[in-house]
Design brief:
The structure holds 2 protein chains of 2 kinds. Chain A has helices at residues 2-11, 17-57, 63-101, 104-110, 115-152, 157-167, 170-196, 201-235. By secondary structure, chain A is mainly α. The two termini of chain A are 33 Å apart. In chain B, a hairpin with a 2-residue loop joins β4 and β5. The chains are: A mainly alpha, B alpha/beta. Chains A and B meet through α4 of A and α3 and α5 of B.
């Protein structure tokens, strides 16, 4: 029910444009460095594993292919989702929880403002914009990092990027880009629900924040599994 | 029949009962507040005082009974109508509840900005309301956490006044946690607003001195039920054992003060 209310508030006017821009900035710019760093490191770790295994079978030239499939379709969106979920769900729940415990939410309502419109919708829209963009950045860095790892295994950049470009198809990209849209809904719904319903002062906000991060992170893994199953069924893979 | 009973009521609680889960908060509470009156809801902690304000704002729904604001039962209106009715009321929350991500000016001008008033209208309005509550307009760019508790409450009052010029103001324990001087400034301000603007007010407090100072009429709550309603003078004469016990510390303090000052006689 709350998820439906979140989606309705995000789609229907009025829109708080200033808050939306602020949330896009907070989600996108605030998460950019940590996503870039995580993607680069995780991409290289993945490439080492792949290159090592491929070298055994004499198919090192397929590194680009495997990096695209594993990074763009699977690891990239999940990794970015979990990194952003840790940061954003903690921030959103703590902020809304503190507002709840200090009567600021009631003050908003008392002054005729719908908290769903002013607080929840901008966060939903902010993540809808930020998460796919961050996923693209993360995927790109992960794949680029793989190329540098490949050099250590005597895989030239030319052959690596030939494999990358061959498998960077619209369907592979779409699989990777659909997931962040659902992750954004999950993160916002869980974080806002936990924040708006937190009770028990500072301790209650702390508990709600912890629960929010745990549920969002595990929820991303579950959502990823469901999305992958559905996408494979729809695309007939 | 006294004049208060004949005057048109601005706010009315009619047989209101409210509970959270199995825990009863209010039981069959009834009272009416006339136009321009300052009503004090007095009672010990946990007696359900603040709940009355939240029910009046429509933040919570009663289990049974009716709540009238300007003759309209807010328990039976649509959410849109409730939002409009709320616009006729301003509320000062217990700890101020200022929006901590906004400056003082943005807090006071919040409803004006929400209603899309141009900046050039909001700026002077913020200044005017800051002056009205006795604060220097220079503080408008400061954040709430840079202000003292007393200043935060006064900003909260300014925000409530700026909220579409309400004709009803609700104060939830506005002096709680303040030093005596700041508390006195707040109660003086409440009296000043009544004298100059004729606002109808409800002030919830457990401070008996504040109740006697500010209230035209006082409603005393004990564990969610009304045990007294009348003027401060009538409260002072009340013989009810709960009221006698509740007022005892205040009476002792006043008597001690009078003894020190050499004034004979009882408490009023």
């Amino acid at each position: 029910m709350f998820c439906v209310a979140v989606l309705r508030s995000a789609f229907l006017p009025p829109y708080y444009k200033h808050e939306i821009v602020e949330q896009i900035h907070f989600s996108l710019i605030g998460s950019l460095f940590i996503v870039m760093f995580s993607a680069l490191v995780a991409g290289q770790a993945l490439a080492i594993q792949l290159a090592h295994e491929l070298a055994k079978t004499g198919t090192k030239s397929e590194l680009g292919h495997f990096m695209v499939i594993s990074s763009v379709r699977a690891l990239g969106p999940v990794l970015t989702g979990i990194v952003v979920a840790s940061r954003m769900s903690a921030g959103i729940t703590a902020e809304l929880g503190t507002m709840r415990s200090s009567d600021q939410i009631d003050a908003l309502v008392a002054f005729g403002t719908d908290p769903m419109k002013r607080l929840v919708a901008p966060r939903m829209i902010g993540l809808w914009v930020a998460l796919p963009l961050l996923t693209i950045v993360g995927d790109a860095l992960s794949v680029i990092g793989g190329g540098f790892v490949g050099l250590g295994y005597h895989i030239t950049l030319e052959s690596y990027y030939a494999g990358v470009s061959r498998y960077l198809t619209p369907s592979n990209l779409m699989v990777g880009m659909i997931k962040p849209v659902f992750f954004a809904v999950l993160i916002t719904t869980v974080a806002c629900w936990k924040g708006l319903t937190s009770t028990g002062g500072a301790k209650g906000v702390g508990v709600a924040t912890t629960e929010s991060v745990v549920i969002s992170s595990v929820g991303i893994l579950v959502t990823d599994f469901i999305c992958t199953k559905l996408i494979f069924r729809v695309l007939g893979w | 029949m006294d004049s208060a009973a004949l005057a048109p009521s601005m706010l009315e609680f009619r047989n209101v009962t409210f509970s959270i889960g199995d825990h009863g908060i209010l039981s069959n509470v009834s009272f009416r507040v006339t136009r321009g009156e300052t009503r004090v809801i007095l009672g010990p902690s946990g007696s359900g005082k603040s709940t009355i304000l939240r029910l009046l704002m429509g933040l919570w729904q009663p289990d049974s009974g009716a709540i009238f604001v300007n003759g309209e039962d807010i328990t039976a209106v649509t959410p849109e109508r409730l939002r409009e009715i709320r616009r006729s009321m301003g509320i000062v929350f217990q700890q101020g509840a200022l929006f901590d991500s906004m400056t003082v000016g943005e807090n006071i001008g919040y409803t004006l900005l929400e209603d899309k008033h141009p900046e050039e209208e909001v700026e002077p309005a913020v200044e005017r309301y800051l002056q009205m509550v006795g604060l220097d307009p220079e503080i408008r760019d400061r954040m709430p956490d840079e202000l003292s508790g007393g200043m935060q409450r006064r900003v909260a009052i300014a925000r409530a006044l700026a909220a579409r010029d309400p004709n009803i103001i609700l104060y939830d324990e506005p002096t709680t946690g303040l030093d005596p001087q700041s508390a006195e400034r707040i109660t003086d301000l409440v009296l000043h607003l009544r004298a100059t603007m004729g606002k109808t007010s409800i002030m919830v407090t457990h401070d008996i001195a504040d109740a006697f100072k500010v209230g035209d009429r006082i409603t005393v709550l004990d564990r969610g039920t009304v045990v007294f309603e009348g003027t401060p003078e009538e409260l002072n004469m009340a013989k009810d054992p709960f009221i006698a016990e509740f007022l005892a510390p205040y009476r002792k303090a006043v008597a001690a003060s009078r003894r020190r000052d050499g004034v004979p006689g009882g408490v009023s």
